[in-house]
Structure formats: C-alpha cells, structure tokens
Amino acid sequence: MKHKPKYCLFYDNHTMKAVPDIGKYFDAEAFVERLERCGVDYLVFPARCNQGLAYYDTRIGTKHPSLNYDLLGWLSEACSRRGIALGAYFNAGISSEEGLHHREWTTLYFDGRTLREPRLTPHVRTMCYNSGYRDHLIAMVKEIAGNYPVDGLMIDCLIGYPCVCPTCMKAMKECGVDWSDLNAVSDFAETSAVRLAQDIAAEAKRINPDVLISCNYPPYEKLQHINDYYDVIGLPASEGYDSMPVKAHYVRTLGDKPVINMTGRFYDWGDFGGLLPAATIESELLYGLANGMRPSIGGHFHPRGDRETAVLDRIERIYAHLQTREEWYDDAEAVTDIALVYPEIVRRQHDSAVLRGAVRMLCELKQQFDVVGLSSDWSKYEVLIFPDDVIFTDEIARRVKRHFDAGKRIVSTGSSGLNPDKTKFAFEKEWGVRYLGENGFAPAYIAVGERFGAGLPGMPLSLYSSGVDLLPLPETEVDARLVKPYQNRGWDGDYAVVYNPPQEITEIPGLTLSAGVAHFSHRIFSGYYDKASVELRRLFSNVLNEFHRTPILKTRNLPAFARIFVTEQPSRRMVHLLSYLPEMRGRTAIIEEGIRLTDIEIMLRDEAKSVERVYSAPQRVNLPFEHSTGYVKVSVPHIEGYALIVFENQKPITN
Predict the structure, then answer these.
(1) pTM > 0.90: yes or no
(2) 3-state helix/strand/coil string of 557-604
(3) If phi over 0 gives left and psi between -120 and 50 gives alpha, with beta otherwise, what is residue 343?
(4) Each residue of 490-540: pLDDT tens digit?
(5) Which secondary-structure segment (H or E) carries 556?
(6) How far apart (Å, rounded) are the C-alpha atoms in residues 83 and 253?
(7) What DSSP letter does each residue of 325-390 carry, written as one string?
(8) How far, in Å, CA of 516 to CA of 411, rounded?
(9) Phi–psi pair at 286, nearest 5 degrees
(10) Residue 351: half-sphere exposure toward Cβ, Cα within 13 Å
(11) Cα–Cα distance for residue pair 410/404, rounded to 1 Å
(12) Do the beta carbons of residue 67 and residue 20 sit within 8 Å?
C-alpha cells in the first residue's frame, strides 16, 4: 500500500569527499525516535548525493570513502520499526565523483567545456542522460529499491542541461533536431531527462509497485504520468515570496496527487548555520496547508551525524502546532471559481513576471482561484482570466467556445486572445474589438470613466506596461481610454526624453466590455509586478466584481497583505486566514512574527443556507453567524498570524 505523506522532512547530505568522519556519531535509532516525536511520517534521505557519493553498501556506485558502515541501511531499518516511511534521494543531474572518473558521462556544453563557469557551484560538472551514466543511475536505483525497505524515491535535478557530446549529437541528427540551436538542444535534453524519469519509475515499480516516485525539474505537466506526488520546493527567504504561490495555485490542478510544500529551516541551500524564525517556517507551511499542500521542512544532515537538537526542537514545535488542526487539513481540497489561464509550458513557470503579478493581485483581492494550463479541466470555473500574452491555439479556442456556450465570462489583457499569427482576435465578435497592432505610447496612461472609477483618483493613471491598439465594434462599450504623453520616452538626438506627462485623452480604448469579455488594452499584470500600482489593482477589481458578482468568498476589514483561502471536506468548508507580512531586510525577505488583526468579517457563499455551525479550530469555539443574500456571514474578533474558521453543513456541499 502506498504511503500518503503528511508531515515530511527532507535532508540534504551533499558531502565533500575530503570530510573524514562520515556517520561517526550517528545513532539511527535515537535519530528516528526524535523524528517520531516531531510527528514526521515521511523522511527523504540521500542514497547518493550530488557529489556522486553513496551512503549505503553499493556494489555499483562509489561509497563515501570515510563511511565505514551502511548508513542508509541502518536508517531504513530504524524507520521501518518506527513506522516512518523513508524516501531515498538520488541526484540525477549532478555527480561530481562519477563525472570525474567518467568524463564521457558528463555534459559537453556549446563552448566545448565540460565544466561550468564560474566553477563555485554544485552544477560545475553535470551529467549527460544519454551516456553510459543513464544505465549506471538506473542500476543504482534498482539496487536501492530491491535491497532496502524504502517507500519512495526522489530523483532530483533532472535538469535539461544542453549537451552536444557525440552520443547526443548522433541522437539529435537522427531525430531531426537542430543541434546548432541552443533552445532546440535544451528541449532535447529535457526530453532525455523525462525519458530517464520514466525508465527509473518503471524499473523501480517492477520491484515495488507501491514505491512513491517524485522526480524534480522537468515541467510539472511532463511528470504527470510519472510522479506519484509533486515536490514544490522553494525558499522564500532567498527566492522571494511571489514564487511559491504561483506553484501552489497551479500544481494542485494536475490530477489527484499529493503536493508537498517544501521550505527549508535555513536561509539558503548550503547554509548549515541558518535557522529561520519559527514564524517564517510556519507561515510558509500554513500557506501550503491553506491550499491543499502537505508540509515538508528541508534541513542539512551533519556529516558526522551530530544531533541538531535546536533544529529538531523547532521542527517539533511547529509540527505539533500544525497537527492540532490536522482533522481539518486531512484530504482537504481547495475551493475555487476563477481560473488564471497560462497554457505555456515553461521550465520555471513561477519565474514569469506575468504570473507573479497576476497571482499576487488575485491573492490581495481575496479571490479563490487556480492557475491552469492545458493539462487541467477549465469547465468548473465561472471566470477565465487570460493574462497579458496568451495566444489562442486551436485547443484554447475550443475550450473558450465551450466556456462561452455555458454563458460564462472572461477577462483578458494585452494581446491575450489573438490567433496564432497575431493578426486578429480569435473571437473578434465576442471580444468586441478589432486588433490594430501594438500601441506606441511610452508611457501610456489611462482615463477611467465613472462606471469603474470607484476608489480611483480623478486623473490619468500610469499603466506601467506595453499594450495594443483596439478598434471597438458597434455594440462594444468603451469604459476607459488611453491618454497619450507629450513625447515618448527615449533619446531624440538632442535630449533624453524622460519627463513624459500626459497630454490628452484619445479615442483609443483602454478597457472594453462586450457581452462576455472585459479586455484591458495593456498588460496590466506585468505592470503590477513592476510597480505594484494600487490603482491598477483597484481598476481590475472593479471590473472583476461586476463580472463576478457572487464569488465564493467576500471579506471586510482584511488588509491587502493578509491572505484568505477556502478548502473543503465532505459536509464542511474551512476558511484559512493568514496575517503575515514579509519584510525586506537588506537583501533578504523575512517574516519574524504574525500580525494581529481584529474585527474581520467573512461572507462565505451558501445559497442553500446549509451551514449549521461556525467555529474556530482547533478549540471549536462557536462563532455567531447569519444567512444573508446567498451568503453566511460571520465576524472573527481577532487573529494572531493565522486562524482556521470552520463552516459545518448538515449534508454534503453541492454549491
């Protein structure tokens, strides 16, 4: 029976060959007993690290020279006795030791080098997935799966390193790949990585059909039929707080598989002496739990096996606190009614400024949404949002037509909605506008009319992005117009034109509305990510509120930095309130404590008036509520960083 991870711990153990005392003070029994006290049910521990060194008695690979016993074997037996599932970690893309002795296994880059520059990186020597290394790695995975009681395999760093070695060159020429094009070679390398992941999974499952597989780095879509769960890995302290939310709202749409939210106890990978504040770690894990993800904390295993009591104490306190609400986290699924559509498959989707800006804006507006691609079903959503530059392929057009046929709405921005040759809108009639080309204003301003001007200053507003020129069709409403600057920004031969005040309102639409589509001429989500314009967010919110009058959730007195999400189990829904504010301190973003909020009002959609009880968890303190115009309304007196409000129904939820 496959294990279902709930509270996870991940250990890095990338240990240099020169370290002389591997495992000297390690006591597997005491270590696992400590993990049990922490409430950990799934541990991922290296079988072989990114140095290419193994921590078990391998007959195939290279065991760390200073390890004189089978560390992983001892650990696996101790975990088995304590009922803790163990996942064996392999770094697939990096193997310094094996690459050093088998140069023919390493990646040959475009510049003819096998070593990366600058060299102070774990990725200095990377591996070719089409070389003899491929069979070697699979053999080691089979060695572990066949000889140790492991419950899972994490195959890390399956990165598409572009390789032009003789083996890859031969294969690319046979497949018709343009080996002189770096992008084409990178795509081929990614395909090779996915093929390796498929073969690893197949071989491991021949040995143990219940073994959990999690491969990392190829796009999540390409791992849908390989992974048994997804690892969403990030360190907001070093990567920023806009990355993980994109992945959290997206990965959960890729089938009914567990999603693990892995943060770290440290400030950056390779940081042995960092221990983040408990509020930082807990807030990141709570965000995941509020979005249906299971928590995982990454740490470093000290090579000697030193007991890192301070780290484990912090993990124990955090997990003990989270587990008081496990009854409401277990098998809870996110409740959403908006889809942010981003069908492009990119290697690091969360790095998209468009997505980061859009996800942040929707979170600040307290909307309940998913990020979806072509691998997800769009039919359940009331509103589709196409951000900035989503070109409509035949497949997207088919889905959009079904959406229109169901009488549902769309909000789009920039060039989203154009056909593949970018000459016209794929649904010109429904969009209500004709595409004329890219807009030439730099910068562009917008003048908003009364209909959507609530809360906006009565002045031309900067859009902070590029956009397109539109010609409205006869039945289309124009609710905002572009304002041209006196001069475009740039060098005119004599002057640097950097002061560009608005001159006059034009007839060029900035916002149009047809029966089913609201379209912004400019790429407002990119603009929001660039400048965080509260006015842009307010304008978008005014439009969305008219198009989507009965969202799942409404709130009052909840500041923009706070987050609120809805999950559900049979016969009840949970509202998660998070009040944490990341602060930039020099170069590092940090959360040191939760923020107290008071007098919050929540309105949860409940057309059937089926909610019979509302309480705060885990104390089960009842909260007074009332039914009002299709919603159940409740006031939350205060929260300290996080609160979980439960709405219980007498019968299963249908709305």
Answers:
(1) yes
(2) CCCCCCEEEEEEECCEEEEEEECCCCEEECCEEECCCCCEEEEEEEEE
(3) alpha
(4) 999 999 999 999 999 999 999 999 989 999 999 999 999 999 999 999 999
(5) strand 553-556
(6) 30
(7) THHHHTT-EE---EEEE-----TTGGG-HHHHHHHHHHHHTT--EEEE-TTS--TT-SEEEE-S--
(8) 9
(9) -65, -40
(10) 6
(11) 9
(12) no
CB 125 within 8 Å of CB 180: no
How many residues does this entry show for the chain?
A: 655
Can you tell me the distance from the alpha carbon of 445 to that of 256, in angstroms, rounded to the nearest whole number? 44
Type of residue found at 259 = V
Nearest CA among 540, 561, 479 for reference residue 513: 479
Q: What is the CA radius of gyration of the chain?
A: 27
- Quote the CA–CA distance of 217 and 90 in Å, as a whole number: 13
Cα separations (Å) of 328 from 257, 566, 613, 620?
A: 18, 12, 15, 11
Return left, alpha or beta for 266; rule: phi > 0 is left, psi -120 to 50 is alpha, else beta.
beta
d(CA 509, CA 507): 6
The residue type found at 346 is: V
Given the DSSP bridges, would you call strands 563-569 and 631-640 parallel, antiparallel or unpaired? Answer: unpaired
- Percent with pLDDT over 70 in the chain: 98
Return all residues near 326 (Cβ < 8 A) that are at least 6 apart.
Answer: 6
Collapsing DSSP to helix, strand or coil, 529 comes out as helix
Q: Provide the token pair at 259.
A: 């999603």
Give the C-alpha separation, 424 to 94, whole Å: 46
Beta carbons within 10 angstroms of residue 116's beta carbon: 16
pLDDT tier for residue 245 given thresholds of 50, 70 and 90: very high
Pairwise CA distance, residues 165 & 331, whole Å: 47
634 vs 556: CA distance, rounded Å: 11
Nearest to 50 by CA among 94, 9, 80: 94
Q: d(Cα 507, Cα 529) in Å, to the nearest integer? A: 27
- Encode pLDDT of 540-556 as tens digits: 999 999 999 999 999 99
Query: Which residue type does 644 have?
Result: L
Dihedral of alpha carbons 208, 213, 218, 223, sign: positive
Strand segments (E) across 367-501? 369-372, 383-386, 409-413, 433-438, 445-448, 461-462, 468-472, 477-485, 490-491, 496-497
How far apart, in whole angstroms, are the C-alpha atoms of residue 252 and residue 371?
9
Residue 484 tokens, joined: 């041209």
Which tokens go with 588? 């590092």
Average pLDDT across the chain, whole number = 95
Neighbours of 450 (CB within 10 A): 8
Which string of DSSP letters, residue by residue, matches 50-107? Answer: TTSEESS--SSSEE-TT--S-HHHHHHHHHHHHT-EEEEEEESSB-HHHHHH-GGGB-
Q: What is the DSSP letter of 237?
A: H
Distance CA 648, CA 113 (A): 62
Query: What is d(CA 236, CA 92) in angstroms, rounded to the nearest whole number?
Result: 25
How far apart are the C-alpha atoms of 326 and 6, rounded to whole Å? Answer: 9
Q: Averaged over 141-164, what is the pLDDT? A: 97
H-helix or E-strand containing 638?
A: strand 631-640
Distance CA 43, CA 22 (A): 20
Q: Are 91 and 57 in contact (CB under 8 A)?
A: no
Residue 146 phi, psi (nearest 5): -90, -20
